[in-house]
Design goal:
This protein is an alpha/beta fold. It has helices spanning about 30-40, 45-60, 65-70, 75-80, 90, 95-105, 120-130, 155-165, 180-190, 215-225, 235-240; strands at about 10-15, 110-115, 140, 175-180, 195-200, 205, 210-215, 230. It has 11 helices and 8 strands. This is Pyrimidine 5-nucleotidase.
Length: about 250
Amino acid sequence: MSINDSEDPRPIVWFDIDNTLYSASTKISAAMGQRIHAYFVSLGLEEQEASDLHHRYYSQYGLALRGLTRHHEIDPMDFDRKCDGTLPLEDLIKPNPSLRKLFQDIDRSKVRVWALTNAYKNHASRVLRILDLEDQIEGLVYCDYEVANFTCKPEPEFYRNAMKRAGISDPAKCYFVDDSRLNVVSAKRLGWGRCVHFYESGLETVEGGKIKRLGLDGQQGAEKEGIEVISDLEQLRVVWADIFAS
């Protein structure tokens, strides 16, 4: 990418949404896993085959739907309506005043704040609205299920497209926080400058339909890549102290 003289000089802080802006303790990942499993079964797969394929696609592509669109004749928008669209989010998450204050305290004269998610825009906007953060996010990059062969994290092309969308040419000017180690490692290897792994050690989450207890091994894996690890977004006030208002 060539540097545009009219480019906004401020770095961008990219926030993942699911299991980052809210805790894994909400069990949203479990509710989503159940719906995705049911979707696999609806394709005519046996229970075990559906479970195995769900986990394989998630592990291979970073998103089960990415595998489904590559290897099965499905409508991604139908998947979105039946899976993300039926989540009882209003019952599971609520506005968090301290989280909103964290966003408000980010100095917007120094950085821009965007969201970067593997969800479709409907789900992303819904979560941001429930958390009362819509007005704190200046831009949203999501998986566009309406585009054939769409990309997602941790694919390098997804990050490059995100930078194009946001009008930023220098990867070193990208701050990024995500609950997925693979996602932050991928960004770090592309040159994103200030990557943080949000990791709630001790909690359980569901990845690819499989229950995973977050142990110390995941934390150490990110640290070996030179990535900061936090367990509470409030710790960003220390890790990224320079972007907060005095």
